[in-house]
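Whiteboard transcription, Tuesday session. T.W. wrote the structure tokens on the left side:
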């Protein structure tokens, strides 16, 4: 099992909390694509998302929340 430290996650995001949120949303996107179910060595989607974030492969932008009027 690979362990991701908060410093690894924070390198490619504004902070560790935002990094985890970005990885979680990216894992949800990955879940929508078809996967090869026959492979027993397939990594979990959250692990794949954290790996790609720590490599710097994920680009994202923060959209400010709109206040209710």
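and on the right, the sequence the group agreed on:
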């Amino acid at each position: 099992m690979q362990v991701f430290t908060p410093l690894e996650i924070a390198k490619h995001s504004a902070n560790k909390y935002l990094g985890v949120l970005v990885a979680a949303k990216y894992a949800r996107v990955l879940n929508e694509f078809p996967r090869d179910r026959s492979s027993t060595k397939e990594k979990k989607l959250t692990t794949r998302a954290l790996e790609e974030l720590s490599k710097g492969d994920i680009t994202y932008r923060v959209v400010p929340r709109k206040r209710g009027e």
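Someone added at the bottom: The chain has a mean pLDDT of 87.
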